[in-house]
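chain below, 593 aa
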Amino acid sequence: MKTGPGAPILVLWDSQTPHRFSGYITEILQIEGYNWFTVHDLSRQAVSIEQLGAHAIVILTHVAPSSEVQAQVLAYVRQGGNLIALHPPEALAGALGLIPHRHEMVDRYVVFNRGCALNAGVEPYTVQFHGRAKLYRWEGHEAQVLAMFAAFPDVVTKYPAIAVGNFGRGHWAVFSYDLAESTVLFHQGRREQASTGSCPDPDGDRGFKPNDLFVGYLDAALCHLPQADLHQDALVRILEWMTGLRQPLPRLWYFPNGAGAVAFINGDGDSMKREDLENVVATAERFGASYTVYLMMENHETVPPEWEADLCGRGHDSGQHAFAGRLPTLGQMREQLRKEMDAFRSRYGHESVTFRGHNVIWAGWMEMAKYLRENGVRLDTNFAAGPYFHQGYLNGSGLPVKFMDEEGTLLDIYEQCTMSTDDGWLSDKMFLPALSVEACIALSIQQADAAIDRFHTVYHPYFHPTRTRPGPLSAQRWLEGALRHCRDRGFTFVSGVDWVAFNDGRRGLRLAEYRFDPGQTVLEFALEAEVGVEGVTLSLPYTCRGRAAAGAEVDGEAVRMNAKELEGRMQVLLPADYEAGQVRRWRVWWGGA
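prediction:
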């Protein structure tokens, strides 16, 4: 959702740029809860300093702006504006004090700097970046460098990957790599290794799967980190720093009602009997959880429409589990999806809103995402670790993120990474020894704790109903252990359809009004909802201009303020429900106002 010309954030883009993934910065802003931006297309019109000055922050994407536009951007910063530049032109970076080096760096590492104040409270991770980066020397203060490039995880260079500084009365931040492009490649992997690429099936399992896209591209030692999310966290810290110098900027928290994380529990109906599904659903309900099941065509007889409707009424969900063979062509996959989705819709009377395919087969690079969307799917769960990775954040993210095709078109379908697989952990199919049930429980607890305490991501395992049958390798105790731990840790449980609806609603909020009184430290703003949504939570800094948060109202009614340390910073969380088309007016103050 974009707001009008007065939006706090202005994104400068060029629709003719050869850097087609540069526009993904708008998706990153939506993921991070900053819906209040507008996009200016430089290929259609140059930008004036008056236009720039109407915005609190300007984000310059990886494009080739004219010298005139660069001069206007520099003048904007000099007069007190805030600039975030992604892989900027050398001339612009040089004017900000960065000294270009003749070499570049490609697909290596970034190490966050312990000594930078903007990294206070967060772990100094070493993560990968993707794409081509420009190397600069920086002769300013080391504390102005958020992150350095590294040739290897333990070989840090002297070249800044992310730096911040002052210019005139304004402030700037430079990402020497293209954050947007790197994020797309984290999420989607190498096109060359897709089924239609020059190097298909690089893991050699004789199946076209998302895992193929990351072999030789994702560092297996870093699979436990949501690397793309950690890059985005740096952007959030910069945005909060820049806006906090003058006025606080509302942000929408990732999860309903200020939860630290959500748990999305699902599984596939392979060879499932009715009693298998009944057992898993009953187990989930004992712990207050939802369960989403993906049905094969053979399961349609096992699950009659009346029972499926009853399960949905009790908070569970179902989707289709289509299969077109392990090595399908694009045409075969598209036709099979059409047939099976039509059959699912005809039998159950609704779309398969979320989806996982049998054997997690993935045809093409982004063609599969397009085929799913044309069949009504809004969230895909196929991206799960396979050989060489075993578990973790295969796509670098634990959040629902949208796909982008080769032309830079954003696709209206979410990608939700699956963090663990019962068949993968209880067997040696990942080229690693099979784990015991006790080891599976321990590793699941470790994943869940990291999701809620460190990363604030979705804990997303899958459990086949058939694998909960009694036996030496039964996953029943594992499922119970994971559910019990999530319940006890305060996770919010979601079904597939609920998770899509919440994220659509969260992204559908726009900033209708915005006023800040710096003397009284009172912020007044209004949010308008495109669709109805419950529990969307505002996040604001706990301190503003040296004053602590003191109170909040929505539509004139006092609301309880929940102060909580998240992402290394004290934040104030303000949940509320919104009806479609409703405008809710907020008033928040710090100190004694």
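The first strand starts at residue 9 and ends at 13. The first helix runs from residue 25 to 31.
thats it, cya
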